[in-house]
């Protein structure tokens, strides 16, 4: 464990000031939100830690809004708030479900959605839900504002479309429609406070008993979260049946490329991915055909 | 038998303190965060130390250059094995605290630094330059036994440690004949893994050497007297110059049994600087460098006749000691006692082979080999019952040991309620037979056996007590015994309060400074309540004699009429004739020729050191019990969910039911997590999951409903009939869960941990 006592911490009082500082110290500051990823990484890192821009005080980045059928979440919003939010529970229950599985109570209270997105762990639990919700990220810098679709944001393992001087300020997505249902799944090695061995989210749009649109995103099985496009294709235009969902579940193997590590072998991850997709689709089939 | 049991409980009603659920006497301070642990010890002018470990699991040290470390601001001492003279450690004297010439594992200590801050010490340690010549390592004990394997200790010419633990009732030809003729035989290979004891308090020490040549050690050892003796030898100073102070211990579970390199290293740094030096592990260091539970490879076969009687059992165990021998390999002795003693088996052979590798050296941990060997024995019992078409509970009851049995190794079993424990376990879990637990569910059983009345592994198995009573009736019990957080101090206080008829608040237990306390061998083998309790009871009886003599004079009545109760002493024939306890003490003190009341006793249980043939009655009492596990295995994910554990214990009379239940709950959680979650994953001898992110401790969500049952048959040798309890909760859990998984899935798990992936 490294001492971090030598680093300087800038604590801006407004977003403007934060962007100002980021601009002035271009490339020299790391953004500190809840710190549940960053501080651990800095203490373990071999290199000297950078100075910090502590944005944790910026309450203007804590909000959940329902604005013209668009749900907007401020980047600093913590996962306890997201899970409990009536807006999220009603308009994006798949995200509420995913958020509830993040760490323990302490982590839920401290961890921000922005941190989860920018930390870019392939196993991050909010990401599959944000993928299937077609989320857009708002990135601001002193000179302007940029919007990036979440799928475009990740360029490879921990490689991001984020420039120095830019801050993630908001994540937004269309509210789910009446005929859309979504579910999240997570497989960890224990029940409490577990890191995902595989996770995923499914969003289906159903019209007259047929799947009109299907979006499936899987985590911890590739360098970034991936869409299971073959599985989606298998479902679109079909009525949900045992046969169809089994085929869809198996089709995910073409989209994933997991690795072996302490948490599980690649083969095990593949098997779990198929099984969980099947189990989750099975539950959704029951909901649809009710 | 049942009659006896009930009448005994009626007698128990008479007790006022013993047998009651009282809060732990050390609980209050811990709850409010005021208890002081080693890490809370802060002394003026204190320095902080860090250790440099080997970069390779096996290498020659060519050169160490500490120059750059000295240049880090705040550094006050840098030591290597080349510039301090330290003796070797360990029972086999095979372990130098600071390594020279060669390193044998990645935890090998190469140098250490003391500095004004932890961070400076850490920076300095990283600045030390060491040149190594890497050597081929050996990480599999079976590989290490081969003649051409790389040698961990060249001077031994073999990796097989000269520690044969072998017991047999007859020669192998005869044994083979028994197996050939038997109606049913099961034979298998089992493998159990490394895990970390994970107490809240990590390993640590504060060493303070002063200008008078006195060394004070603040430590969380479990055996302060042996520690003092060993440390003196290593440092080359007289143990009488070493003062050992134990602050509160944040759990130990066996990890505190030995002296480890950090102890002499901290002492050496303090001797160099004449300043207090603190060396406390971070959680990552604890996971990487604390001695883990002894892993084992177990080849076992068991034979039974058609009626379901056991005929023979053979166990050959391979114990990977790691690079040095600490307490871990001695788990073999416990494995042996359970192999020969859990059930009546006429013919047994047990053999343990201890092997050096370049893995972490092992320690002993709660149950000390018993969870490991019980995993094999109790799965074989399950498989044998099935092969014979018998009910697994019935089959165990047929073979269970009975009271007043002598085992083949000469263990004298006195009280033994194993059969009743098995019946209760079956009843409480709702056992209706194999495959009847419901879809994807299964029930499994396992019995256990352990020492519960001390264990003579040293020349003395004793514990001393000094008891004094002050003028206000406050009784101070200075015990040799160490409370690891289990509640043994509370049990001692209850015993003394009961015997002297005073309330629990009137008893104080003192045991933090080993230079004041009378001797004790250490807290291990579930012995504290039994041995220290008996010692305290003897002391209380002695004090009571003095008090009774004075009270008899005062109340003009024969001493045998006196009753000690409710902080008074009265005449049973005329309760109006009475005197308050504290007043009585003052009467003895404040008079011509008066005296104060201080008594001293030493209790050494009637146990025997085992001879070279592993014969001898190790303990003055033995404990038994059984667990039943109800599990559900998800067919898609193979996730094993433990729904319920029933844990039934014969530990004699339970002195403090709430505390006892707490011990069982903790034990079950530990056993369950050893079975399903916790594993130190090693690659080339290095722990690759040395952080709580991936070292999976159980959370409240992993802990199932635990039903605890005590079958209370007071043991004549125990204090108020109590036997040991501290370790047993975790012993049968792996086997019970494995048997339940078999019942649910038809799959036998022979390797721990049981991961969804392996099902
Ligand atoms: C015990 C424990 C359990 C955990 N369990 C889970 C779990 O179950 N599931 C899961 O997904 N994660 C888990 N995590 C990881 C972590 O809590 C989450 O990823 C969390 O969302 C990170 O948010 P934070 O606010 O703490 O981010 P920080 O640690 O402050 O930052 C993380 C990264 O994002 C950057 N960053 C943060 N905010 C911004 C911003 N607005 N703009 C630009 N860059 C930014 C930082 O510079 C840093 O690189 C766990 C962590 C711990 C310690």
UniProtKB/TrEMBL annotation, chain A:
Q: State the SMART domains in the record.
A: CO_deh_flav_C (SM01092)
Keywords for the protein's UniProt record, in alphabetical order: FAD, Flavoprotein, Oxidoreductase
Domain FAD-binding PCMH-type intervals: 2-178
Gene Ontology molecular-function annotations: FAD binding; oxidoreductase activity
As recorded in UniProt, coiled-coil segments are none
- The keyword Lipid biosynthesis is annotated on this UniProt entry: no
| TM regions (residue ranges) | none
- Entry's PROSITE patterns? FAD_PCMH (PS51387)
Q: Which SUPFAM superfamilies match?
A: CO dehydrogenase flavoprotein C-terminal domain-like (SSF55447), FAD-binding/transporter-associated domain-like (SSF56176)
Q: Kindly provide the name given to this protein in its UniProt entry.
A: FAD-binding PCMH-type domain-containing protein
**Which species is this record about?**
Caldiarchaeum subterraneum
Q: What is the lineage of its organism?
A: Archaea, Nitrososphaerota, Candidatus Caldarchaeales, Candidatus Caldarchaeaceae, Candidatus Caldarchaeum
TrEMBL record, chain B:
Q: Does the keyword Oxidoreductase apply?
A: yes
Gene Ontology MF terms in the entry: iron ion binding; oxidoreductase activity
The record's SMART domains line, in alphabetical order, gives: Ald_Xan_dh_C
SUPFAM superfamilies of this UniProt entry? CO dehydrogenase molybdoprotein N-domain-like (SSF54665), Molybdenum cofactor-binding domain (SSF56003)
Pfam families per UniProt: Ald_Xan_dh_C, MoCoBD_1, MoCoBD_2
Q: Which of UniProt's keywords are assigned here? A: Molybdenum, Oxidoreductase
Q: Which residues form the Aldehyde oxidase/xanthine dehydrogenase a/b hammerhead domain?
A: 32-136
Q: What is this protein called?
A: Xanthine dehydrogenase family protein molybdopterin-binding subunit
Species source reads Caldiarchaeum subterraneum
């Amino acid at each position: 464990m490294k001492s971090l006592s030598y680093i300087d911490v800038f604590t801006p009082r407004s977003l403007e000031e934060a962007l100002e500082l980021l601009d002035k110290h271009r490339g020299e500051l790391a953004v500190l939100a809840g710190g549940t990823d960053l501080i651990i990484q800095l203490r373990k890192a071999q290199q000297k830690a950078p100075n910090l821009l502590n944005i944790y005080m910026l309450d203007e980045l804590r909000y959940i809004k329902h604005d013209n059928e668009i749900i907007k979440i401020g980047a600093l919003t913590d996962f306890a708030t997201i899970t409990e939010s009536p807006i999220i529970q009603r308009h994006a229950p798949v995200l509420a479900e995913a958020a509830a599985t993040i760490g323990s109570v302490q982590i839920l209270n401290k961890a921000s959605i922005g941190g989860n997105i920018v930390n870019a762990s392939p196993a991050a639990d909010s990401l599959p839900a944000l993928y299937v919700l077609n989320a857009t990220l708002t990135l601001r810098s002193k000179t302007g504002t940029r919007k990036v679709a979440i799928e475009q944001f990740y360029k490879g393992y921990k490689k991001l479309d984020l420039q120095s001087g830019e801050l993630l300020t908001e994540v937004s997505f269309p509210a789910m429609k009446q005929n859309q249902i979504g579910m999240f799944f997570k497989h960890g090695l224990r029940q409490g406070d577990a890191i995902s061995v595989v996770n995923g989210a499914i969003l289906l749009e159903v019209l007259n008993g047929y799947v009109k649109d299907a979006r499936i995103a899987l985590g911890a099985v590739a360098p970034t979260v991936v869409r299971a496009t073959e599985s989606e294709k298998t479902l679109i235009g079909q009525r949900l049946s045992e046969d169809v969902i089994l085929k869809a579940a198996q089709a995910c193997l073409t989209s994933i490329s997991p690795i072996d590590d302490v948490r599980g072998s690649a083969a095990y991850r593949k098997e779990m991915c198929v099984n969980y997709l099947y189990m989750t689709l099975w539950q959704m089939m029951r909901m649809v055909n009710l | 038998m049942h009659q006896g049991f009930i009448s005994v409980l009626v007698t128990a009603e008479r007790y006022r303190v013993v047998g009651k659920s009282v809060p732990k006497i050390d609980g209050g301070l811990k709850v409010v965060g005021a208890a002081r642990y080693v890490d809370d010890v802060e002394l003026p002018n204190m320095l902080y130390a860090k250790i440099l470990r080997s970069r390779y699991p096996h290498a020659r040290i060519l050169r160490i250059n500490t120059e750059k470390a000295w240049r880090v601001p705040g550094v006050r001492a840098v030591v290597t094995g080349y510039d301090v003279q330290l003796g070797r450690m360990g029972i086999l004297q095979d372990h130098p605290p600071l390594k020279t010439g060669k390193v044998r594992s990645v935890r090998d200590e190469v140098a250490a630094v003391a500095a004004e801050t932890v961070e400076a010490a850490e920076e300095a340690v990283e600045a030390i330059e060491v040149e190594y010549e890497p050597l081929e390592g050996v990480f599999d004990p079976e590989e290490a036994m081969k003649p051409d394997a790389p040698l961990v200790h060249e001077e031994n010419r073999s990796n097989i440690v000269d520690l044969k633990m072998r017991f047999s009732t007859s020669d192998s030809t005869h044994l083979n004949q028994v197996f050939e003729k038997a109606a049913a035989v099961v034979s298998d290979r089992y493998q159990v893994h490394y895990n970390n004891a994970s107490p809240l308090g990590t390993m640590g020490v504060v060493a303070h050497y002063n200008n008078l040549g006195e060394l004070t050690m603040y430590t969380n050892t479990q055996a302060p007297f042996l520690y003092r003796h060993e440390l003196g030898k290593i440092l080359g100073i007289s143990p009488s110059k070493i003062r050992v102070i134990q602050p509160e211990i944040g759990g130990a579970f066996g990890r505190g049994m030995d002296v480890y390199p950090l102890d002499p290293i901290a002492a050496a740094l303090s001797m160099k600087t004449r300043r207090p030096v603190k060396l406390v592990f971070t959680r990552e260091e604890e996971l990487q460098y604390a001695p883990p539970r002894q892993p084992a490879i177990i080849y076992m076969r068991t034979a039974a006749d058609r009626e379901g009687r056991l005929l023979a059992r053979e166990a050959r165990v391979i114990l990977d000691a790691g690079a040095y021998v600490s307490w871990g390999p001695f788990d073999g002795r416990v494995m042996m006692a359970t192999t020969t003693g859990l059930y009546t088996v006429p013919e047994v052979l047990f053999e343990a082979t201890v092997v050096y590798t370049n893995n972490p050296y092992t320690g002993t941990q709660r149950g000390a080999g018993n969870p490991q060997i019980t995993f094999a024995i109790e799965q074989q019992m399950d498989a044998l019952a099935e092969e014979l078409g018998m009910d697994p509970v019935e089959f165990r009851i047929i073979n269970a040991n009975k009271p007043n049995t002598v085992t083949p190794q000469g263990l004298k079993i006195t009280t033994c309620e194993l059969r009743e424990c098995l019946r209760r376990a079956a009843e409480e879990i709702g056992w209706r037979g194999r495959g009847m637990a419901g879809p994807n569910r299964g029930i499994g059983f396992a019995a256990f056996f352990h020492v519960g009345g001390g264990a003579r592994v040293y020349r003395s198995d004793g514990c001393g007590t000094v008891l004094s009573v002050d003028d206000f009736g406050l009784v101070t019990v200075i015990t040799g015994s160490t409370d690891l957080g289990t509640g043994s101090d509370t049990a001692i206080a209850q015993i003394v309060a009961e015997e002297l008829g005073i309330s629990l608040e009137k008893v104080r237990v003192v045991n933090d400074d080993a230079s004041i306390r009378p001797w004790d061998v250490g807290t291990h083998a579930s012995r504290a309540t039994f041995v220290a309790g008996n010692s305290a009871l003897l002391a209380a009886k002695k004090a009571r004699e003095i008090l009774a003599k004075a009270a008899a004079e005062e109340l003009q009545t024969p001493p045998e009429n006196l009753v000690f109760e409710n902080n008074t002493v009265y005449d049973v024939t005329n309760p109006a004739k009475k005197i308050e306890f504290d007043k009585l003490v003052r009467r003895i003190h404040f008079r011509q020729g008066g005296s104060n009341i201080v008594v001293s006793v030493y209790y050494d249980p009637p146990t025997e050191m085992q001879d070279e043939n592993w014969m001898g009655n190790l303990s003055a009492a033995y404990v038994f019990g059984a667990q039943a596990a109800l599990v559900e295995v998800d067919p898609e994910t193979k996730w094993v969910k433990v729904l319920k554990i029933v844990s039934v214990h014969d530990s004699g009379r339970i002195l403090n039911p709430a505390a006892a239940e707490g011990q069982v709950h903790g034990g079950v959680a530990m056993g369950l997590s050893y079975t399903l979650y916790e594993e130190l994953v090693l690659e080339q001898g290095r722990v690759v999951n040395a952080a709580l992110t991936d070292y999976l401790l159980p959370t409240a969500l992993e802990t199932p409903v635990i039903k605890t049952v005590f079958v209370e048959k007071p043991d004549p040798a125990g204090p108020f009939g109590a036997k040991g309890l501290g370790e047993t909760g975790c012993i049968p859990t792996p086997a019970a869960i494995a048997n339940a998984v078999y019942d649910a899935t038809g799959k036998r798990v022979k390797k721990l941990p049981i991961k969804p992936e392996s099902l």
